[in-house]
Amino acid sequence: MYAFLQMSRSWVDDRPFMYENVWGYHHKIHNYYTVLLWGPLCRAFGAYGLFAVQAGLLLISYAAVNEQLYKRHLQDWARYVLLGVVLFGPVSFWLNDHPNIGWHTELTYLPFALLFALALLRRVRLPAIIAGIAIILVKEDGAVLAAMIHLAYEGIQFTRKRSGQPLWKWLGQRRFWLITIGWGVVFLLGMLWVGYKNNFAEPRLQIALTLLAGNIFEKVFWSQMALLFGHSIILLVPIIGVLGLLVVQTKNNLGNRLFLLWRAWAWAS
């Protein structure tokens, strides 16, 4: 958390760009560019500024989701249960009480992802572009998250327009490949930019792959992976369970069912 606090304030405090005392020039390691936007708040309120940003973004995104659910005529009790589980469930607790780091810029992926998904749903181009750019600027792998949400949305649109056709046929559509290749290019450009800033030294991805190759046959590796996977499932069980209940309740409304399933995908992503 202290590293992100220093990075966000670097340009306000007239310090070297995104410099912090733990890893030095952090912009050579990751593209954490959205954190610079929180500099004035962090200058005024210190670390509380980071949590104010997190709370503000979540409030905006959850309010937008609630509005969309209301427009889709979802019953009031269902909306309140859904938002209650989201706001007070284990995911929100983890977001506001990260045990190891305290606060990480990746936590803003959730609100930006929800806003991007809603902008796509409402077919408003400018907000979708802004939210998409925000996801990309959180970190260099943000393009992967944006691609998943974009492809999920387009897949649902394909299902609605061509009911009865299997979803796998969408893989042969020109639009699928345009979206996939487009976001893939954005991801590669982000990775190349990180490499350029670091003089193309051994990237963290290569280090991670080397460690993976050296440990993939170790029992402790799979034990740790199983533990992490289990923790992730536990975090998502309440929200997925509530969304599943709502899907059953809206069995006569295909549009609402697809919308809720897509919300599950956006939250899980």
TrEMBL record:
Keyword Transmembrane helix attributed: yes
Annotated transmembrane regions: 45-65, 77-95, 101-121, 176-196, 228-248
Keywords associated with the record: Membrane, Transmembrane, Transmembrane helix
Official protein name in the record: DUF2079 domain-containing protein
UniProt source species: Spirosoma telluris
